[in-house]
Amino acid sequence: MKSIAPVGPLNRQVVSSIVRRAIDRAGIDAPSCGAHLLRHSAATQMLAHGATLEQIGSILRHANINTTAIYAKVDTTLLEGVAAAWPEHNLSVETEPPKWEFVSGELS
């Protein structure tokens, strides 16, 4: 069996190509399935299992915590848990992502 791994450094395009070839080899006929979907799924699972938005943002290399906060809207149960953990911030469960800002290492 021929390897799907490239020779050389990994970057976004190489990872996307590896995932696409693996999906094709597996016979999965889902055009929306790809590296980005796997990344999003992994982040959602990390949040569901207790990772903080800061931890997820660091792993995903997000420059802004607001980018990472979109994962909190995936499951309102998760967002309710976040709101309950920080009652002093008066967060509410809405259909829009929370408007959090990352200031001096803290969510505000």
Automatic annotation (TrEMBL):
<protein>
    <submittedName>
        <fullName>Tyrosine recombinase XerH</fullName>
    </submittedName>
</protein>
<dbReference type="GO" id="GO:0015074">
    <property type="term" value="P:DNA integration"/>
</dbReference>
<keyword id="KW-0233">DNA recombination</keyword>
<feature type="domain" description="Tyr recombinase">
    <location>
        <begin position="1"/>
        <end position="84"/>
    </location>
</feature>
<dbReference type="InterPro" id="IPR013762">
    <property type="entry name" value="Integrase-like_cat_sf"/>
</dbReference>
<dbReference type="InterPro" id="IPR002104">
    <property type="entry name" value="Integrase_catalytic"/>
</dbReference>
<dbReference type="InterPro" id="IPR011010">
    <property type="entry name" value="DNA_brk_join_enz"/>
</dbReference>
<dbReference type="Pfam" id="PF00589">
    <property type="entry name" value="Phage_integrase"/>
</dbReference>
<dbReference type="GO" id="GO:0006310">
    <property type="term" value="P:DNA recombination"/>
</dbReference>
<dbReference type="GO" id="GO:0003677">
    <property type="term" value="F:DNA binding"/>
</dbReference>
